[in-house]
Amino acid sequence: MSASGGTKAIVAALGANLAIAVAKFVAFAFSGSSSMLAEGVHSLADSGNQALLLIGGKKAQREATPEHPFGYGRERYIYAFLVSIVLFSVGGMFAVYEGYEKIKHPHAIEHWYWPVGVLVFAIIAEGFSFRTAIKESNQIRGTHSWSQFIRRAKAPELPVVLLEDFGALIGLVLALCGVGIALLTGDGTWDGIGTVCIGVLLILIALVLAAETKSLLLGESAGPENTTKIEAAMVDGDTVTRIIHMRTLHLGPEELLVAAKIAVRHDDTATEVASAINAAEARIREAVPIARVIYLEPDIYSEAEAAKGADRDATPGGPAQLPSDH
Q1: For residue 49, what are the contacts with CB-CB under 8 A and spacing of at least 6?
Q2: Per-residue pLDDT tens for 250-281?
Q3: Sheet containing 255-264, strands listed edge to edge, beginning at the edge strand earlier in sequence
Q4: Percentage of the chain lying above the pLDDT 70 cut
Q5: E strand or H helix at 52
Q6: Entry pTM
Q7: What does the alpha-carbon distance between residue 273 and residue 124 come to, in Å, rounded to a whole number?
Q8: What are the beta bridge partners of residue 255?
Q9: What pLDDT does 309 receive?
Q10: For the chain, percent helix, then strand, then coil, each to nearest 5?
């Protein structure tokens, strides 16, 4: 994902949400609709979320330091995770609480044209923001479905904006239904029911975002396409005969670590092995430019050792070593 594409979608969403938040709070002040208050807080929270994404993108550009030798690329994942927390607490939980209060103490909606007019305006503005996010995502989505794109994207900004905008549009429709039924029946309870539905929707979206960004924070490997390219580039069949094992890890959305044990010929000199490693690194970087940190360890391939399978004790996440007296 290009950073510029994500930034464009974030800025479009930020502008739309700020305008919508102001309109919703004005509508709440005139109508007393709890759906308008919940939606206003939702838009305000979304605006804060977009600001968090922009801050995370800026901080991620810092140069590596001795304390953080692999750089700050994961700042973008951290701020995306914060977005899910804000969406869950400020957006979802507040809406559920406000809806519960309105159901418990219903009152009629006054000046109905305010909430209805604002909701129509908000749907148009959110539709523009959603359209921008879809357009930017389509440039990198390829043949993946939308669910696959959200689950496999290594850059968090576009999936976050897509889910937020999608949730906002559904929430606006729910608010419009709640307000409409409340006006038709004269029962303000329906406004509260619509507000609770908005809260539940936001909580579900926040949980999806939290799950996806948690996976990124833990460290995800390269996607299948990049893994295939790296493997093809690493082996030339002459100096590097095969890959014994390989690990990849995203240090950030646009930075990939590649570590592998490669098989070289048993009669190669040290100079020939060093040249083979340098050549393999150059081929990998040409095939996958985001593979910026590469560690290759030469070894002699043994079919007998390979037949034993991977040594889980020697890999991250392997079985813990028990004390000798157990």
Answers
A1: 83, 86, 87, 160, 164
A2: 998 889 999 999 998 888 888 999 999 999 99
A3: 240-252, 255-264, 291-299
A4: 91
A5: helix 34-59
A6: 0.75
A7: 62
A8: 252
A9: 63
A10: 65, 10, 25
